[in-house]
């Protein structure tokens, strides 16, 4: 059973370009979470999605950031008009139900590292 | 509201000596607590989890942690460090929502970098 798959693993963009990060959850998982890790910091929650629904986007910046999890295909985190401050590692996590309900445990991918020049 | 504080940003030990990584939490509810490890340029691997069962939790690679409600602590220990243990360690608490249910959101500590010297 493959784990959470993220791609690209590394992405370089110039200021003003768009970045698209993809996440395929573990097989059988229908809940996806995106976290951002800035240099020298812990991970911060961004958004929680189920298929075709955004459940909680309280951690998403108000502008330029969007996320989706379509009925078919991976979840996409999209950053428009990137700025240097967007440089970070973006981690996707999945669970079969909301945070495994009883435990809150999530299963993480290896992350996508965005560098903005 | 839940929060977690890792008391040391860097810990350095010699190979073969004990490891202690400290974590204090704050939660209005009985929390779910986790320790994750992150090796350089890698994802996060779950070391162990506490979910209101036994207070002494054993994880992978010889790590264990003890939940102490009176001290609101969840320190991570290992009797004997190995070079391969050098990594970033995160103490994590699960966010509890309405109805005392897990929301699926996690709050991460700032991380502790463990250095293991030969």
Could you walk me through the main structural features you see in this protein, from its secondary elements to its overall organization?
The complex is a heterodimer of chains A (about 120) and B (about 120). Chain A is mainly beta and about 120 residues long. Chain A is built from no helices and 11 strands. Chain A has strands at about 5, 10-15, 20-25, 30-35, 45-50, 55, 65-70, 75-80, 90-95, 105-110, 110-115. In chain A, strands 2, 4, 5, 6, 9, 10 and 11 form a 7-stranded mixed beta sheet that branches. In chain A, strands 1-3-8-7 form a 4-stranded antiparallel beta sheet, with no helix packed on it. In chain A, about 40% of the residues are buried. With about 120 residues, chain B is mainly β. Chain B is about 0% helix and about 55% strand. Chain B has strands spanning about 5, 10-15, 20, 25, 35-40, 45-50, 55-60, 65-70, 75-80, 85-95, 100-110, 110-115. In chain B, the strands form 3 sheets. In chain B, strands 2, 5, 6, 10, 11 and 12 form a 6-stranded mixed beta sheet that branches. In chain B, strand 7 (about 55-60) and strand 8 (about 65-70) form a beta hairpin. Chain B is globular. Chain B starts with a strand and ends with a strand. Classes of the chains: A mainly beta (about 120), B mainly beta (about 120). The interface of A and B includes residues 41, 48, 100 and 109 of A.
CA distance, first residue to last residue of chain A: 37 Å
Quote the beta fraction of chain A. over 45%
Which chains have the largest interface?
A-B, 28 and 25 residues
Mean pLDDT of chain B: 89
Query: Helix/strand/pairing class of chain B, anyone?
Result: mainly beta
Outline type of chain B: globular
Low-confidence stretches of chain A: none
The main sheet of chain B comes to: 6 strands, mixed
**Series of secondary-structure elements of chain A, N-terminal to C-terminal:** EEEEEEEEEEE
Oligomeric state of the chains present here? heterodimer
SS class of chain A: mainly beta
Report the principal-axis shape of chain A.
Answer: globular
Uncertain spans of chain B: none
Helix content of chain A: under 10%
Task: Count the E strands of chain A.
Answer: 11
Mean pLDDT of chain A: 90
